[in-house]
Structure formats: C-alpha cells, structure tokens
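Known limitations

Files may contain more than one protein. Parsers should not assume a single record per file. Below, a two-record file is shown to illustrate correct handling: read the sequence, read the token line, then continue until end of file.
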Amino acid sequence: MPKILVLLVTYLFFINANSQKIDFDRFIVETEFAKLPKQYTDPANRTYTLKSNLETALQMNTRELIQIYGFKETEKNGQLDIEIKAGSMTRGTAQTGSRLVENKDKNGKVTSKYTVYYVSTINPVGSGWLTVYGPKTEDPKKAAKKERKRKKDDDEQKPEKVEEVNPFLNNIEIEKPLVETESKKRTLIASYNNGNYSYTTSEYSNSRDALNNFELNREVNFQNHLTSYKNSIVFNTNRKINDLYGYAPEIKRLKFHILDTEKHPEYKNYQNACNAIKLILKKLVYNKPTDEVKQDLNSIISYFESLKSKYGSSEKSDKKLRHFTALNLATIFYALDLTDKCIEEANYIIALDYDKEDGEDFFEDATELQEDLNRLKMSSRRLIEKE
C-alpha cells in the first residue's frame, strides 16, 4: 500500500509540473525607420549646396550621385554647404624587389633555396577631402559643463574687460571680421584615405618577367583603382553626411516572443496575435505616418494587456507568460515610438522580477530614443515632409 501511494504522489507531481511548463520561441520582424542624425536642422529649410573640385580623371556627376535623405539641393543659400575635393593622382615609379625562398625538410634543414622577384610602385600621390558647413547642435553634456562654468564665473564677478580704442583709427571705417554663426559652423572635415595608388606584381623567377608583367598591367590596374576611388568618394560622402544630417531609411530587427505550448489555453489566440504582428509591422515605412499601423495593432495590444490580469497568479508559468507578453508590448511601443508607454512597460518588467535585465534594457533604449526625438524636435522616427 505505501508503494502504491508513493507512485500516485509521484504521478500527480509529474502531472502538476508539466501543467506549469510553458515555452516561448523567439521570432524576428524586420521593419523600417528613419535613421536619426546627429545634428538638428530646421525642417522648413532642409537644403544643401554642393561644390566639387575633382581632377580630370575623377570627374563625375556628383549631383546625381550624392543624396541626403530629407534634403533638396539648391544653387545657393543652402542650410548645408558641402565641398568635395580630390587632387591629382600619380602612378608612382616602379621598383624591383626580391626575397629569398628556402625549402626545408621535416627536421628544419634547408634543402634548397632560390630568389623570386616582383615589381611595385613607390611614392604614389593622391588625396581627397570632404568638408561640410552646417548647423551644429551642442552636446547636452558639454552644454551643461559650459553652464556650470558660466555660473562659476558669475559668482566670481570678474570685471568686464574694456576694449582699448586705437586713437589712429578714430573716424575711420574698418570692416569687421566675419563672425562664424551658429548656423554655419564647420561640422565635419574628413579625408578620403584610400586615394593613394599602389600595385605589386606576382612573384617571378627573374626580374625581367616581373617588370614585363608590371608594364603590361600597369594602366589597367591604375584605371581600376580610379574607378574604385571614385566609388569610395560617393559612398563615403553619402555615409558621412547622412550620418550627420540625413534621415536615411534603416531596417531594424525587432525581437518578439510567441507562445509555443499547444496545451496552454491561450496557444491559438497568442499564435494568431503574433502572426498578425509579423504582417502589420512590415507596413511601417520610414517616410510615412504610423497612424494606420497603430490602429491595426490596437486589438493585439488590448489582448496582451488582458493576459497580464487574466494570468496574474504567482505561479511560475503565469509569471513567465506575463513577462514575455510585457516584452512583446514594450517592443510594439518601441516600434511605434511610443516611448512613454515603452518605459511604463519596462518598469512593469523590472517590478515583475522574472528577468529584470530585459526591462532595464528597454528602459535604457526607450529613454535614449526619447532624448534623441526631443533633441531633433520629432515625435517619431518618420520623415514626414509637409506638402
């Protein structure tokens, strides 16, 4: 009789343990945002002028190749002034080199040796520069430091410095030097580092063959390098300027969690909700409002919210369900740029204490996004151009 009782208790324990088991699988949704730039620009005048000074061999139609997302090119008085320069390039001079090759046996003894020859260029010349003049937003930490210094100076009450008057310039009009304004500070000056050209042949058994190969392929290799260099000028210019000012489209991978326990009563509804999320969030576009997507997600958000109270017990399985459901809600709010709601959900995850680090990560991400949107005077990561 005791043996049967033990088996029964073991069976009941096994059934209860399995009833509490609940699994979630991760899935990824890719969606589009406008990448937020480092500098703020007045949306009423997002224009730029482009000047290029390229050597003859590097000539190209930069106006068609350079694109700053959210900006339009203008002939003059652009909010940004962009200058691209690339100087003359030379092929350099040929120089023969050599090295000794030794063959060794398994004991390290040299069994044979011979010399191989190659030809390479020396003293090649090439340089390029990108300069951007435009608005420069001061870093908040630096601004706070300046403010503290200003207050300290005020407390010390330093006497105001009086500018001395040159008696020889009385009644003479003097042109005052131009003061660099806040709206036209130089924000970037960068070099195109791969402008230098170099080429080395394969190795040959004699120097004559190496030199013949060098001369035979010298022009082709130089022209290939010019093409590569021109492409790098376009790529680096677009990348650097859009990093500072542009609102280029950017694909982000959002992590969600789907209930994968078929015996759970919410399995079918949870699966449907997550499958709907996959389709709805793909409708987000970097230059379109999010209103329609928000509307489409309302029923899913309401469903997830209801689960937090419906499964509010202290059971481990219920707590796990609430945790991953809150993660899904936080991800939805983050995707929609609803930072306040995302922070609220992050605090819920932290307080639940199933895995509070997940909540802390969301709190940090949402706070940073909120600060960036405030800095750029935007309500979302969408580039909405006014008609």
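...continuing to the second record:
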Amino acid sequence: MRTSLVVFLLLCLSVPLAAQSTSCAFELTLTGGADDGFASPDDPTHRSPGLSNFIVSRFPKDYDDMSINRHFGDSFKLDECMICNQICSATVEIEVQGTGGLDCNDSLFIGQAGGTPIYLQTIIPGGCDSVPATDVYEQWYAKTSSTSVQSISLDVKALQELVCDNNYPWLDVVVQDDHGVDSIKLIIKY
C-alpha cells in the first residue's frame, strides 16, 4: 500500500513538471532584408552553400530586386542545440510583391534547396487559375499581385528532421522568379 501511494504521488507531481517543460518561454526571431517597402538599395542575402549551388543557374537576386525571371533565395543558419531539443513552433513571415512576367504561377519553397521541402505552395492561392485570363495573357508583363505578407507555420517535426537527422543546419527560402521579396522573419518559439 505504501509503495503504491509513493508511486501515485510521484506521478501526480511529475505531471505539472512535464507540463512546465513543454511551455514556450523563449522566442528567437531571425530576419533577412530590411522591412522598408522595397526601398533601394537592395538588401543582401546570406545563402547557405547548398542554396548557393542550387540557385546559381537560376539568375539569383537579392532582397528588394523587382526584376523578372530571376529567383530569390536566402538562408537562415540554425542553432542545432535549440532545434534538436524542445521547440514549440516555427513561423516564416515573408513580404512579397509580384513583378510582372507570369507571377501568378510562382512558388515559395522552404526547406533544403534541392531537397525535400518543408513547405511548397504557389504564392498566389490558386495560381494562375485564380487570376482573370485577360490579366495573365493579355497583360503578360503587368504585375498581377500586390504586396502581401504571408505567415507560414512550419511543421516542427519536419524542421527538426532537416536539422537533426539530415545534419543540415540551414533553412533555405526560395521564391520563383517573378516576385520580389522585401523581408523575411523566422520566428522560433522554444
């Protein structure tokens, strides 16, 4: 009887301790580019070695560059000790604007450049099917999207797999090729 009471008390006491250990008391915000409304001069990117190799043949551009048919790419160096332990959430906030060309089919890739994405979607929901045909085809070089800030919640387990299991301490962000990027924030709660 006494042993079961001790075990019961230990279990009851350990529940609040476990709940406390999963709370997110800290937040880390990493930024790329200045949130300046696409003001000149262009802000530099800081690409991982993998992203540098991936993007070189895709005519890379930096923050605030509004040219068409060139890919944007930047990377965030991640702290493996933090990522491989307890993190509660990871969010990417990115400010983009269409530059003309065929910007309605552009995609946003987050993960390891040249590898499996953690996130991959068209920037304009529905892609070109959501834009009137006259805007897409008759006004080919008129921009079809205005400035928007997109907030993307990343799959925490996929992020941990990328960093911890694949030993890739970078988070690469690539925007296909007719969108400019003003700034990016990576917000990690742990």
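Parsers that stop after the first record will miss the second one. For reference, the second record is described as follows. Helices lie at 2-21, 49-55, 80-84, 133-138, 156-165.
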